[in-house]
Amino acid sequence: MTENNKQVQTTDSKAKVNYDTAIFAGGCFWCMVEPFDTVDGVEKVVSGYTGGHVANPTYEQVCSGTTGHTEAVEITFDPAKISYDQLLNYYWQVTDPTDAMGQFQDRGDNYRPVIFYNSPAQKEAAEKSKQRLQASGKFDKPIVTKIEPAKPFYPAEEYHQDFYKKDPLRYAMEEAGGRAKFIKEHWD
């Protein structure tokens, strides 16, 4: 479990960096890692589970739909290099914010789109970002992505971490389930 509401301090040879975290759910967590993993200012992206009522759930438990968890990613970032608002913009561009019942071929509560906020400032930023997207007219349907307080985040099993690097063929099959086409149609 990680602490969502505390900044991580690290020391390198030059200066201390105060990292912050963002937690986003947008369908299968495998497909949420790569878009953030290469962003300048993002230190790491961890696949995991949050929002449920069982401590340290397994993938099988979460997939059974009995734990209340949502697959999500916890993004550790340097706010001096990338802002939370910028991460929100990336988030909107890799999810379908009009589908509350899952994302693309992944259906069910454990795949629902959610922005989990770690502070009042993150909550306010997420709400404003959602309002801007709705007002933009980019989508014909309402923006239904939830904005909820962060709960304990449990990293997924190791074989889920950086899945796009470990099993690129299977990852490509997941991406072919509608996400890439949706992104191209709405954002390119």
Automatic annotation (TrEMBL):
Catalytic activity: [thioredoxin]-disulfide + L-methionine + H2O = L-methionine (S)-S-oxide + [thioredoxin]-dithiol; L-methionyl-[protein] + [thioredoxin]-disulfide + H2O = L-methionyl-(S)-S-oxide-[protein] + [thioredoxin]-dithiol
Keyword list, A-Z: Oxidoreductase
Keyword Oxidoreductase part of the UniProt annotation: yes
Domain Peptide methionine sulphoxide reductase MsrA: 21-172
E.C. number: 1.8.4.11
Enzyme class: oxidoreductase
Entry annotated with the keyword DNA repair: no
Location of the active site: 28
The organism's place on the tree of life at top rank: Bacteria
Record GO terms (molecular function): L-methionine:thioredoxin-disulfide S-oxidoreductase activity; peptide-methionine (S)-S-oxide reductase activity
Pfam families (alphabetical): PMSR
HAMAP family: MsrA (MF_01401)
Family: Belongs to the MsrA Met sulfoxide reductase family.
Physiological role: Has an important function as a repair enzyme for proteins that have been inactivated by oxidation. Catalyzes the reversible oxidation-reduction of methionine sulfoxide in proteins to methionine.
Name listed for the protein in its UniProt record: Peptide methionine sulfoxide reductase MsrA
Organism expressing this protein natively: Lactobacillus crispatus
